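Structure in, sequence out. Go:
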């Protein structure tokens, strides 16, 4: 894989992976860039350009082998090597993420849940006990998670992020709205702003 891959291409890769999985489930074994473009709403040249960033997987006159292409994208996305992840904040949002996200299929293995509320600590969510946030240091030293999901309020996030960074956890799926990267430029962060997403829908509906 040569050169720096643009963020726009990286953002499309999970969508390719998902569509290819659906095609495989339907019994298809190969697909042309034109057929894939029609299903995904992208141009065939865009798809070819995207996949050529990683060496290209198609054959002239044959198209793409769906199995091989999906495996290659899984490799590029790191889905073939599950990474350990913990979740902080098992309120409504954290509980929903725990219950409904298939972590294994996304390249992660959820190994710990943490909360600061005594009423939540000790509950079992998706076969995992909710641990006290006071045990975070000890747990991280013993289990060395690679990433953390933050489902906590913005005003609580800075302290937790500083604690996790010192423990060697430097990768975050961040629902907290706290801007982790400002004080931690070395951190890898994927921010999730549900409100921003809904606001974009409002824009699309307003500007028809």
């Amino acid at each position: 894989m040569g050169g720096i891959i643009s963020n726009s291409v990286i953002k499309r890769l999970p969508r390719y992976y998902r569509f290819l999985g659906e095609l495989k489930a339907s019994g298809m074994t190969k697909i042309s860039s034109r057929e894939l473009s029609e299903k995904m709403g992208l141009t065939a040249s865009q798809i070819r350009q995207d996949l050529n960033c990683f060496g290209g997987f198609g054959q002239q006159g044959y198209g793409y082998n769906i199995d091989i292409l999906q495996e290659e994208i899984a490799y590029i996305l790191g889905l073939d090597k599950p990474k350990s992840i913990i979740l902080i904040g098992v309120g409504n949002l954290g509980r929903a993420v725990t219950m409904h996200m298939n972590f294994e299929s996304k390249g992660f293995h959820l190994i710990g849940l943490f909360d600061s509320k005594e009423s939540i600590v000790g509950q079992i969510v998706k076969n995992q006990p909710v641990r006290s946030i006071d045990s975070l240091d000890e747990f991280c030293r013993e289990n060395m998670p690679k990433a953390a999901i933050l489902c906590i309020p913005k005003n609580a996030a800075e302290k937790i992020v500083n604690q996790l960074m010192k423990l060697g956890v430097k990768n975050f799926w961040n629902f907290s709205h706290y801007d982790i990267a400002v004080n931690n430029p070395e951190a890898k962060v994927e921010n999730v702003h549900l409100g921003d997403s809904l606001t974009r829908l409002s824009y699309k509906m307003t500007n028809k």
